[in-house]
């Protein structure tokens, strides 16, 4: 299958019929001008070597050469070829809180959806880095292993919802440990080597109730893995909505005594985790979703070569139309507009016939 690298240049082929039409009009006007000077028989006597067909053949060759040059500039490509490329980048594990409190609507549309948008924006800023995705509530599990396929990462991201983990709570420490595993820590099939090219990003409202997240961040930092946190929510308390089977909000989460449960951003906890993990904390609220500090941490990470990628690309075939264009131009130069008396085929045939008779 033929593929063109610069398809926009093919629009120049419109010039071919326009030039052909202009030449036909010019030839017609030229014949009218000559007709005023002398009739056809007289012109034949005045210019006996003039050819009716050679000028047409020459302009056809010129237009063919121009069309082939345009096609060559568009760079036709066919087939595929294998090429090896070395990839360099950092390894980043993203931990997303999907506990019920992330459905709070203190930031619009809610904390979870805003978190997913933040991750999508982060993926758009990365180039060559590998990313894994961990979701957590009362426990954690790997949603997506380490990959540099950002399109696949966004597909996994779109499927995340708060009902994926039945055990409620917010175990940030467990999420950090799971993220370390996605980076290769404690993996019997992979040798762990300390490197300053790894980071963990935690996106949560910070209401940690299950474990010692600060200790987990300190352990990660001791292995040269930086831990950054992004706070989702506002400092003012807000209720946690509950939904019916059709996805419509019908009430708010209540405690055993019947009071409405309020949730608010715990910036103190998230800041402590970031300090313990030698990372940065940023708050993402309604006013701004900027993560410049986190991006700066990622940019400072060491870039390591993590393998070679073999991929296919089209192979250029521009040399074929270019060669054909050159042949057309050379042929046009070698063909004279007037008949050649010395090599006139009709006269040679008549001469041979006279000799045989």
Explained architecture:
This protein is an alpha/beta fold. The chain folds into 2 domains: 2-75 and 318-356, no CATH class; 85-310, von Willebrand factor, type A domain (Rossmann fold, 3-Layer(aba) Sandwich), CATH 3.40.50. The chain has 11 helices and 13 strands. Strands 5-4-3-6-7-12 form a 6-stranded mixed beta sheet, sandwiched between helices. Strands 1-2-13 form a 3-stranded antiparallel beta sheet, with helices on one face. Strands 8-11 form a two-stranded antiparallel sheet. Strand 9 and strand 10 (249-252) form a beta hairpin. Helix 3 packs antiparallel against helix 10 and helix 7 packs parallel to helix 8 (267-276). The protein is elongated, with a radius of gyration of 37 Å. The two termini are 59 Å apart.
């Amino acid at each position: 299958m033929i593929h063109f690298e610069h398809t926009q240049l093919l629009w120049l082929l419109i010039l071919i019929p326009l030039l052909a039409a202009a030449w036909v009009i010019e030839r017609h006007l030229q014949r009218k001008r000559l007709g005023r000077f002398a009739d056809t028989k007289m012109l034949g006597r005045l210019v006996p070597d003039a050819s009716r067909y050679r000028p047409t053949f020459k302009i056809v060759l010129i237009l063919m050469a121009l069309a082939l040059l345009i096609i060559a500039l568009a760079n036709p490509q066919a087939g595929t070829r294998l090429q090896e490329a070395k990839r360099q980048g950092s390894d980043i594990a993203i931990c997303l809180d999907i506990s019920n409190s992330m459905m709070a609507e203190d930031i619009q549309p809610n904390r979870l959806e805003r978190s997913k948008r933040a991750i999508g924006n982060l993926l758009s800023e990365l180039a060559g880095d590998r990313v894994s995705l961990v979701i957590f509530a009362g426990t954690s599990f790997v949603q997506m292993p380490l990959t540099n396929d950002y399109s696949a990462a966004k597909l996994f991201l779109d499927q995340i919802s708060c009902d994926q983990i039945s055990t409620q709570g917010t175990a940030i420490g467990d999420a950090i440990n799971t993220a370390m595993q996605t980076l290769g820590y404690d993996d019997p099939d992979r040798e762990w080597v300390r490197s300053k090219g790894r980071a963990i990003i935690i996106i949560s409202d910070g209401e940690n109730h299950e474990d010692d997240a600060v200790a987990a961040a300190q352990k990660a930092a001791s292995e040269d893995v930086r831990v950054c946190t992004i706070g989702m929510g506002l400092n003012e308390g807000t209720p946690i909505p509950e939904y019916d089977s059709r996805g419509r909000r019908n009430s708010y989460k209540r405690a055993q005594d019947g009071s409405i449960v309020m949730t608010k951003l715990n910036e103190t906890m998230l800041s402590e985790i970031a300090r313990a993990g030698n990372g940065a904390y940023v708050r993402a609220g309604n006013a701004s979703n900027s993560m410049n500090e986190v991006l700066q941490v990622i940019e400072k990470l060491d870039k390591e070569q993590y393998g070679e990628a073999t991929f296919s690309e089209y192979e250029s075939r521009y040399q074929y139309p270019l060669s054909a264009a050159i042949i057309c131009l050379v042929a046009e130069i070698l063909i004279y507009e007037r008949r050649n008396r010395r090599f006139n085929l009709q006269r040679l045939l008549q001469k041979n016939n006279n000799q045989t008779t």
